[in-house]
Known about the structure:
Elements: H1 6-32, H2 41-71, H3 87-99, H4 104-113, E1 117-119, E2 127-130, H5 133-142, E3 147-148, H6 150-161, H7 170-180, H8 186-189, H9 193-211, E4 216-217, H10 218-235, H11 264-285, H12 300-327, H13 338-345, H14 349-380, H15 382-396, H16 404-408, H17 411-423, E5 430-434, E6 439-441, H18 449-453, E7 460-462, E8 467-470, H19 472-475, H20 479-482, H21 497-504, H22 523-540, E9 543-546, E10 575-578, E11 580-583, E12 588-592
Parallel strand pairs: 2-8
Antiparallel strand pairs: 1-2, 3-5, 4-12, 5-8, 6-7, 9-12, 10-11
Helix pairs in contact: 1-2, 6-11, 9-10, 9-22, 10-14, 11-12, 12-13, 12-14, 14-15, 14-17, 14-22, 15-17
The protein binds protoporphyrin IX containing FE (HEM).
Organism: Gymnopus androsaceus JB14
Transmembrane segments: 12-29, 35-55
Cofactor: heme
Amino acid sequence: MHPSNFRLRLLLDFLRILVLPSAVFHLVSTRLYKIHLGLLTIPAYIGFIICWSICKSLLTRALHHTERSRLGAKEIPCIRGAWPGNIDVLLKMLRAFKTSYIGDVYLQLFEEYQCTTLNTRILWTDHIITMDQEHIKFVLATGFEHFWRGRRQKERMERFLGKGIFNRDDEMWRMHRGNTRPFFARERISDFDIFERYTARTLNTISAVQSSGQALDVQDLFSRFALDAASEFLFGKNLDTLSATLPVAGQTKMGPKGSATDDPWGSFASAFEMAQQVITTRSRYGYFWPIFELFGDKNAPHADAVHRYLDPLVKTALEEKERMAKAGVCSPVADKNFLQHLAESTDDPIIIRDQLLSLLLASRDTTACLLTFVTYFMAIYPEVTKKLRAEVLEHCGSAGSITYEQLRNLKYMRAVINETLRLYPPVPLNVRECRPSGCTLPPSDPTFSSNMMESDIRPLHMPGSTVITILPMLTQRNPELWGSDADVFDPERWMDKERIARFVSNPAMFTPFSAGPRICLGQNYAYNEASFFLVRLLQQFDTFSLAPEVQPSGSLPPHEWKQRKGRQAEERIWPSAALTLFVKGGLWARIAKESH
Ligand code: HEM
């Protein structure tokens, strides 16, 4: 069944869960035994459906048990809620997603059950969550062939990301990966002309706002920078979002991810972000999310608004291809931009548009998130800014062109970027589905003493077609791996040989760009772009401060966070996630030049 037919899927499930047992009961009671139930008809049907479901569940458990014995594996620990189907846990989670610190709801469950991989089994459906580095490594890399994005994730994302690289497996994913990889070759991503152009425009905006004494939403500005640079890099046309109206301090409303503006660019950004929010909400409701969208696909208006922006670009690329073919011109890949190259590989405008959109999503929100959190740290740790700036001035001077070699020599800059990616990975969680044949996960890592003392070191059974949510953000803040100061922002840890050796021997501790065959294709582009931007920013400015007084109402951290441990107790902003991490309401800050 096509992933966009989620209502049909729900209808078939409804038939399977309710109608099939009712039909069997009807046949047995009225036809075979000719029983007349009278007033008891409805309770009898309900009772039979419940018994049927329990028997089915017991049968599935028995089959899993047999499979576990065959594989020499044990069961993944399972949450035991107070209400049937762990409905109490579901409600607690839904409440927590609105007000609690990112990832905290999962961390509390791991702490309660003293394990790093857990089955939430909400509404009788197995759903595995893991912060275990051994299991994350297996899912992404060493056991890659056992997992895919899977049907359920595709169903949630189809309307927005369709046939793009993030929403496809196997053949089509390989095709996209093969087509995209050449565009991230070293020569292409070390040509800094594009970064230079959009960095200069962004810094001009900062200067203009700064001279008026206003604060600005840097998250919004960095998103525009990343999108304009990526659009020129990918399809040779700047979307020119840096020229559109900026959000104004103290007046701007909260948008789906950051702040909102009332202009055509604002509508595009809002649609782009709302589509991500809808996908996130669907995944929180779990398997039965289509119940909430019976009378309309909530992503349709947002996806349509984004597609309206991209469709004309795709049309032009296909027309150009036709013109070139008629004229008998064939240019080499090196002379083409990504969109032209995509248009060469297929005539299907939907595949081209979906892949273009996937790359815009991949490059805008992640890079903007990284730059936003680096700025956050520069604002709250002036000593870090000072050291960073000294390094920039030493290696790159206060102006002039910047080379790839110069960027490579900025060791402290790299440490700051890595430390930011560790504490605030732009993709804080990721989802995969086990292929139907099932598999085993290796024994758990030694995070909890219960894992370590466990004498039973059998692997864990991963039933076929089960969804697994991996939480790199929790792994990257795990004190067992990173030490008792795991929650502390300390770039020096990336310059300490002993600590680096630990990470090198155990790379699954740090996977902000994912790992294995689906590792991020834009990793080096992102490091270059972020480093380049920060060099120019620090050449021009030296003082960064937060402006909490203009954060939109409802975007400052709730007081109750202070009672919990870890970063949330000191957080001055509200980190939140919808596919990617962001600062709720935007990051309002002042950027200035104090020293002369
Ligand atoms: C700080 C910046 C970035 C971070 C932290 C990041 C992180 C990630 C992560 C975690 C994935 C795996 C997603 C998944 O499996 O569901 C991914 C995939 C990907 N990223 Fe990035 N990314 C960044 C920047 C970029 C940029 C700038 C581009 C391109 C311009 C890009 C292109 C891609 C692509 C094409 C994939 C899909 C790979 C595949 O499925 O085979 N990324 N990225």
